[in-house]
Amino acid sequence: MHETIDTLLQEGRTFAPPADFAAAANVNDPAIYEQAAQDSVGFWEGWAKQLDWDQPWNQALDWSNPPFVKWFVGGKLNACFNCVDRHAAGERSGKTAILWEGEPGDIRRISYSELKDEVSRLANALKELGVGKGDRVCVYMPMVPELAFAMLACARIGAAHSVVFGGFSAESLFDRINDGQAKAVITADGGWRRGSVVPLKRAVDEAIQMGCPSIEKVLVLKRTGSEGLMTQGVPTPAYDQGKWVEGRDVRWEELVPRQSVECPCESMDAEDLLYILYTSGSTGKPKGIIHTTGGYLTGVMATTKWVFDLKEDDLFWCTADCGWVTGHSYVVYGPLACGASVMMYEGAPDMPDKDRFWRLIEAHKITILYTAPTAIRAFMKWGDEYPERCDMSSLRLLGSVGEPINPEAWIWYQQFIGKGRCPVVDTWWQTETGQIMITPLPGITHTKPGSATHSFPGIEAVVLNEEGVDLGAVRKPGQEVGGYLALTRPWPAMTRGIYNDPERFIKTYWSKFPGKYFPGDGTKMDGDGYFWLLGRVDDIMLVAGHNISTMEVESALVDHPAVAEAAVIGKKHDLKGQAISAFVLLRSTHQNRPGLIDELKAHVAHKIGAIARPDDIIIAAELPKTRSGKIMRRLLRDVAEGRALGDTTTLADSNVVNTLKDKYESMES
Ligand code: ATP
Ligand code: MG
Description:
By secondary structure, the chain is α/β, with parallel strands linked by helices. It has a domain at about 545-669: GMP Synthetase, Chain A, domain 3, CATH 3.30.300.30. It is about 30% helix and about 20% strand. The strands form nine sheets. The protein has an eight-stranded mixed sheet, with helices on both faces. Strands 5-4-19-18-20-21-22 form a seven-stranded mixed sheet, with helices on both faces. A four-stranded antiparallel sheet has the order 23-24-26-27, covered by helices on one side. It binds adenosine-5'-triphosphate (ATP) and magnesium ion (MG).
């Protein structure tokens, strides 16, 4: 048996579920893993039955034409009905569906019955604009409640939405509109971000000017009404001015409020398109991932209830923007399908101060927080005093998603945010999987900091070597193994493919290990059978014959008290094949000093072995990240190897990488 990735990092701490938490948890019997494994289709059917169907399915799973799957064949339902109407019609009608706070501090509370009216009016407005079943609608908005209304209104009338993150440029918007052939755009004049207005309508104008022949209408919400305001020193055009195109552009306040609140839900086939969403683009050109209705809703509802232990009186805050899949599955569809109260926040975490998140938790008594390692590492960097100022005793569960979480960041989250009381769930999944795939169940799993632990019931994840051998199955008892992550069975929320590109779908995910889904990530499985995600296999370094994951070296660096965040890459080296270069961000309590770099190198060698000692370490002010906050190592490789930078369109801030490039080049010379 030969392993594909060496495993170096050892993390011995474990945390049992608190007894009172486990006793009251939605699921606390470990037998469910075995039951779901025995009959995974039946397991998912059990969840699907918790949705309201217009017509039941006649076949739960059709896997006769892999990798193209169908779930709940013959069934009919509407996603908006399941997320809104069925709650508005019952005991939850007055319950808060969305509690929203804008960056300037404005607050709105929308009950399920109000949500139904808002969504129905908007759905009728879309119909008046000529949008109907089978059309695509691009949504380019700030994180305001109307963004959720827009997604749900599309679902209501059977149009697919394609949400584009409001931080993307006109050019990215142009690509996504054309790829999806959207008929209309729903946008706003602007959104608030760190005290400035992000001029969204202006970007829509620019995108359409580049050539978007499919676009017939642009519906514009007035959010900032920004006459006279400045954006990065430039006066922001007032809402009513700019390039208003008569006949194409429509004012929300003129069209939507006068609509009827009666709008029947379109009865959709379980396999009808619900949305298209482009991946965040860490590795290259984003892919238009498609999700359908019945299976998707089943998968996100099940995982919301069990992973987050969602209860009737929770206030659930997933901090992701609806421009990402996390916002689709765990701000909108998952929690609303469960009838939950969802928190939404428009702005930046350091506005007006670095304690904004903790102030929101204190003020609104948020009970469940789901955020990303990039945010957690920023909080660590800013310092402990910010969370310490606030009363966060309402919190009872913490979640993480988006990147591997370094064990020290996990511990910080658990201690300073969860005060040691709250279970932490590190959830691995992707845009393509639609739903959480590898995760603890907080009433059952003994967690280990940095491990996403086990596959969700009904899901089977394995670790394979280059030849496709299942290392977990052939290893000696208790042996640790490292290799490629793969998923062996179809699951309900899995993508049905890449929009307009079935070939790329097969090639990217299904050709490396025939019959198995390959997500592109590496993983180790420890002696207890826990998964530890190691990042993308394209980032794995080959150092003197050893395959070393960037994640383990980064975690060893973050383990040092001076370090808040690290990005590690393999750089071409004549003798070793690759040498390790590290880019490191210090905590606000520490400064660079003579000897620190050698100390960090020694720390890595001590923590995980001399083989992983970085050749060079650069103290940086920022790291290049996607707009969703993921480190883009491929650009750091370009910097280190002196190449022209690859695709930077998904980069959040191009100055960051240019600064690093200058710094790197001045060091080399
Ligand atoms: P692209 O596919 O365009 O390169 P992307 O992969 O960054 O972009 P997403 O679908 O948003 O787009 O991200 C999914 C990826 O994020 C996963 O494949 C994995 O690499 C990483 N990831 C997400 N959650 C976790 C987690 N809990 N632990 C480790 N990695 C994670
Ligand atoms: Mg990806």
